[in-house]
């Protein structure tokens, strides 16, 4: 490694984004667009099971070998299914295979700001709470916790079993932010994308990343119904 590449590696401190196999791939797309719009670097880990939810919810077959093409189609798509709704710049995204346990994010010495798991399946919640590290996504989450970095877990399941609730408490006690993917309606949503962006915005709030994904509460009751 040259001195120059070593310096550029030191400067790049990405957010690791883990997409697990829960329903809610539009939440992940919105978080990814929000991070990129804020000028953040992203390291992306897409679990094997999430290939099924991405296929089911978008029609896109997400392939490791063609991840740039597939990611661009995914992030360009609106939550209502319309293609080319967004024009994201994915130039600062690095993709890691979910089975690649030698990948950068599997080590605490790899520079990262933290990790956002969006959406988080209950299997993922259990795996991270127990420290299973069954794939790169779960290993990166365990590393994030042990390094005392920010971990946001956007759980998507309903209803929740007692064991998942206990695992969510364990994650909270370990320092993670457990954030149910549940939109609020006070921001005056009129489209499905607004509801998706509300959840994504709360994920970015928890990470401390600035964004304009939803309109914040300003202390005015009845404001939602008067917003267009
Ligand atoms: C279409 C589809 C939707 C799913 N939705 C959810 C969900 O909303 N929440 C959940 O916890 N699991 C859901 N699952 C099940 C997970 O994909 C499954 O538990 C998987 O093992 C998760 O693995 P991962 O955490 O490694 O991605 C869904 C599966 C499929 C095929």
List keywords for this structure.
about 230 residues, alpha/beta, Rossmann fold, 9 helices, 6 strands, globular, disordered N terminus, binds flavin mononucleotide, Flavoprotein, UbiX-like, flavin prenyltransferase activity
Task: Spell the H/E element sequence.
Answer: HEHEHHEEHHEHEHH
Q: Over the alpha carbons, how many angstroms does the gyration radius reach?
A: 17 Å
What structural class do you assign from the helix and strand content?
alpha/beta
Query: How would a crystallographer describe the biggest sheet?
Result: 6 strands, parallel
* Uncertain segments: 1-5
CATH domain fold name = Rossmann fold
Mean pLDDT across all amino acids? 94
Helix proportion: 40-55%
What is the domain total for the residues?
1
Q: State the end-to-end CA separation.
A: 54 Å
CATH class: Alpha Beta
Shape: globular
* CATH structural architecture: 3-Layer(aba) Sandwich
Q: What is the quaternary state of this protein? A: single chain
Any overview of this molecule?
- There is one protein chain.
- Helices cover 41% and strands 13% of the residues.
- It has 228 residues and is α/β, with parallel strands linked by helices.
- The radius of gyration is 17 Å and the shape is globular.
- The N terminus is likely disordered.
- The protein binds flavin mononucleotide (FMN).
- The site of flavin mononucleotide (FMN) has 16 residues, from helix 3 and helix 5.
- This is Flavin prenyltransferase UbiX.
- Its EC number is 2.5.1.129.
- InterPro entries: Flavin_trans-like, Flavoprotein, UbiX-like.
């Amino acid at each position: 490694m040259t001195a120059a590449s070593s310096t550029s590696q030191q400067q790049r401190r990405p957010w690791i984004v883990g997409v697990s196999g829960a329903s809610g791939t539009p939440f992940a797309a919105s978080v990814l667009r929000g991070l990129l719009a804020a000028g953040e670097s992203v390291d992306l880990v897409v679990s094997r099971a999430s290939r099924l939810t991405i296929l089911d919810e978008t029609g896109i077959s997400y392939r490791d070998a063609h991840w740039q093409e597939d990611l661009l189609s995914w992030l360009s798509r609106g939550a209502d299914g319309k293609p080319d709704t967004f024009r994201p710049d994915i130039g600062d995204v690095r993709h890691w295979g979910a089975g690649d346990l030698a990948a950068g994010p599997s080590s605490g010495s790899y520079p990262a700001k933290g990790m956002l798991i969006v959406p988080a399946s209950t299997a993922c919640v259990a795996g991270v709470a127990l420290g299973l590290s069954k794939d790169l996504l779960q290993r990166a989450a365990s590393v994030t916790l042990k390094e005392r970095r920010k971990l946001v877990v956007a759980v998507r399941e309903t209803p929740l079993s007692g064991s998942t609730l206990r695992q969510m408490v364990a994650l909270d006690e370990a320092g993670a932010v457990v954030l149910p993917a549940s939109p609020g309606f006070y921001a005056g949503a009129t489209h499905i994308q607004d509801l998706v962006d509300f959840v994504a915005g709360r994920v970015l709030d928890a990470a401390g990343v600035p964004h304009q994904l939803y309109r914040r509460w300003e202390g005015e009751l009845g404001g939602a119904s008067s917003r267009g």
